[in-house]
UniProtKB/TrEMBL annotation:
Source species, domain of life: Bacteria
SMART domains per UniProt: YceI (SM00867)
Name the UniProt record assigns to this protein: YceI family protein
Species, as recorded: Capnocytophaga canis
InterPro entries according to UniProt: Lipid/polyisoprenoid-bd_YceI, TTHA0802/YceI-like_sf
Secretion signal span: none
Pfam families: YceI
Record domain Lipid/polyisoprenoid-binding YceI-like: where: 46-218
Transmembrane segments: none
Amino acid sequence: MKKIVLGLGVIASLIAVSCKSDAKKSETQTEQTEVVSTEKPVGSVAYTVAPSSVIEWVGSKPAGKHNGTVNVSEGTVNVENKSIVSGEFVLDMNSIVVLDLAAGDGKEDLEGHLKGTGKEDAEDHFFNVKKFPTAKFVFKSFDGTNVTGDLTVKEITKEVTFPATVSVTDSEVVIDSQSFTINRTDFGVNYASKSIFDNLKDKFINDDIELVVKVKATK
């Protein structure tokens, strides 16, 4: 009888171990399936970002300000049930343009300085497009008033939220933001920042850059 009881005990132990093993496998499989995917969600419709899409910018300092644009060179917006479920925009940093200066009146010099293609010792003052030719925005959510996503500039990623109007039709998606600001030093753009350097007096450039997003995507 003792042998039978012991035998049953061994069998019960084996079953318990097997159940725990299966549970661990199940937990592992569950954890593996929770990895975030950037692929187009099943059932969504993809829209391609149009070449006319731009980001407008304004930079300022005590002596004045400059404004311009940078092109959104590529990207997709995925829509399901008339709502954006995911999206990604690539900014061509080589396309930085200054709009408030005329050719021959400092326009080329400022564009070269911003891109880091002018003086060799100034290539990293701003965006250093040779090393960082693109920036990226990855859409995360839209609550009806604000768009939230991850902005990557110079390989530094920060979450940003901005007020915007989003329109979705069968043929296109339009994202038009209101003016908002980002702090350039959050992305390693430290040149002439009084929050980084304390000896600039009035020869500083404001940390905040004003941006306006104008993105259109079509099927």
